[in-house]
């Protein structure tokens, strides 16, 4: 087994970055190619990818947070509905970004993701079952919708996207503690938003 194959089996942030970089061919990287690289690993990685892309420096590319938000809503909606296989529209799948620029931004994040990877592990299994998945799906939809207007505010999208990463990584790694932390942060953020608006 080569390094790439070994990484493919790892349910972590750094492994997800490797999957993104290894997907597709050519100078451009399409949304469809990125999602195809993890489509056989369930809904967790498909939620993690767009959330991670928005949280990392790649989220600073104009339009990326909105595209990722749409993807998260589509994927989380299918997870909530109990779909067996994820689906995205062909027009969305054809959207492309520069592979070179994308790879440079991803590589800057590796030291951080590697430290995070050492802390995650399967635990609190009562949060990683079917009920937990659907709770995560509902929260993910609301957080993703918040990403769209927040794209206009510098660095503001990092707040909901960081919670989305926690929730989706919890699904991928079967780490119920991450899901619990994500849900608590979502509740705190919602309460703060309501207080701010009212």
Automatic annotation (TrEMBL):
Residues that span the membrane, as ranges: 60-81, 131-148, 177-197
Coiled coil: none
Keyword line: Membrane, Transmembrane, Transmembrane helix
Superkingdom: Bacteria
Residues annotated as signal peptide: none
Protein name: Exopolysaccharide biosynthesis protein
């Amino acid at each position: 087994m080569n390094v790439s194959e070994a990484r493919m089996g790892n349910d972590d942030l750094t492994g997800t970055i490797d999957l993104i970089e290894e997907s597709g061919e050519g100078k451009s990287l399409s949304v469809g190619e990125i999602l195809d690289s993890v489509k056989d690993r369930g809904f967790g990685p498909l939620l993690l990818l767009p959330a991670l892309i928005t949280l990392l420096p790649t989220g600073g590319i104009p339009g990326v947070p909105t595209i990722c938000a749409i993807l998260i809503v589509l994927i989380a909606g299918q997870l909530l509905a109990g779909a067996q296989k994820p689906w995205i529209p062909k027009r969305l799948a054809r959207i492309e970004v520069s592979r070179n620029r994308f790879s440079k931004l991803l590589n800057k994040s590796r030291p951080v993701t590697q430290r995070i990877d050492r802390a995650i592990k399967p635990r609190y299994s009562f949060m990683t079952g079917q009920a937990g998945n659907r709770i995560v799906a509902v929260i993910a939809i609301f957080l993703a919708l918040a990403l769209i207007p927040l794209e206009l505010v510098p660095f503001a999208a990092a707040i909901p996207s960081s919670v989305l990463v926690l929730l989706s990584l919890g699904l991928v790694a079967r780490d119920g503690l991450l899901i619990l932390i994500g849900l608590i942060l979502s509740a705190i953020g919602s309460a703060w938003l309501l207080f701010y608006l009212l």
